[in-house]
Give the backbone structure.
Amino acid sequence: MRKDLLLGISIILLSLIFLSFKAGDITSQFTGDENFYFQSSRNMISSGDWLTPRYYGKPRFQKPILYYWLVAVSLKIFGIGWFGARFPSVLFASLTILFTFLIGKNLFERNGPALLSAFILATTFKFFKYARTTIPDMALLCFMTISLYIFLKIVKSPDKKNRFLWPLFFLSLALATLIKGPIGIIVPLLAIFAFILISKERVVIGKANLITGIFIFLSLVLPWFLVMLKIHGDAFTAHIWSREITHRIGYFSDTKNGVDVFLEYLKTLPFYIPILIVRFLPWSLLLPSGIARSLSAVKSGETRKEYALVLGWFLAVFFLFTLVGEKHSQYMLALTPPFALMIGANFVEGSFKKRILLPVAIILITAFSISLLVSNKGLRLNNAIMGSFAYKIISHDLDDNDSVAVGSHELIPQHLEAHLNRPVKKIGGKWYDPEYHDRVSRNLIESFYRTKAGTFCIINKDDFTKHVSADIKKRLKILHKGFMWRRKIRITKDQIALLFKEGIGAFLDSYKREYYLVTDK
């Protein structure tokens, strides 16, 4: 018992040290939504309003209140800064690593493979990245992982212990829901449903005290929603229904309808496959054998229930987000614990472990280090250029009446807001449909410059040429120029030909884009 406690504390401490290293450095990484949670939580401290998150004065109804509170408390402890804002994610990531280890220990019934699963999780690129960002996904993942760990204990525990575990299960579901809404309960319940289908284990659900569980869940989740409904009324209801439910579940287009929309939706179904391969490096190379090992364990009957839970968890999450209309790469974060556990299962068998564990570990850790280095190089370049643009804006007599904007689809206003600490407009088309993008961008830019005087805008060279009219260009001057990496990298025949013809320098330069900072001041 004492050994297990020391091991658990060691996992937490090592994870905290590993994940918190340079976590407060905004130049090493930045995710667009981070500034929403940082500024809104910061505003809670300064305004004293701990019920309604506000982003530059506007109520922010996206996501329930719990994560804002956690970030605000962290900012009060560590001070106003990016480390304080990101520490809750570092902490919840460390707890997720711990509970992944505990699930692995229940699966494999020894520490070695469980520790390997925890190590795989910590060094999966997707997990590592979001463990150091100010967004609620890591806290959500932590509570969902805890809920499924508790459910696994229920499956393996004598009936007398279950009555103590079920309330904890519903408590973890409630906390997950208070972090990011209904998805906090949907994912664990879908994973359990998949487990029941695979394992044919139905008895355990019948032993749940649903009345007590529902009471615990609703008594924690409902109060904030009811308070917000009373304060904000229809505005809150409309946002929850249209943005957080209808828009995320469905697939909508402003330019197409009917059959065309359905065909476009079908094209999005493979969206997560390349993400699973590329952003789960280096361990995604072993995913096929991990799935095969889990399927084999389920079919053989050995540890059938336990492997059924991990396999059901993985498949339920993947197919849920594949079918949902709105797609974001961060949704795949929910796959990382079962992903790590399935790959860890490969190393349970002694012969397999002895043959390839050491060489595979060396290769994959090297791949992780290289991918991290390459990614950070690109992020540092982009953040450094954005920082230099912000410096130029501030030093060029920026005042409170001036307007600041980004004028290209790929630019994130919140990125510039994090440097300027003031609102930034987006005046570029939002979607990739070229015709729609061009039309909307031209209209937004015309409107922006027709009504505003004293403006700063960052825009890529191509958009500046295509979307800014000749009349507007006469009023503007280019204050600064810089190159940033493209957000989406696609290797085409032309790029490959360029690599062989002109070398690696020209090849890499083809993935950079030139940006202008323009002003009429």
Remarks:
- The chain has two domains: 2-348, 379-519.
- The beta strands are 54-55, 58-59, 403-406, 425-426, 455-460, 477-485, 512-519.
- The two ends are 69 Å apart (CA to CA).
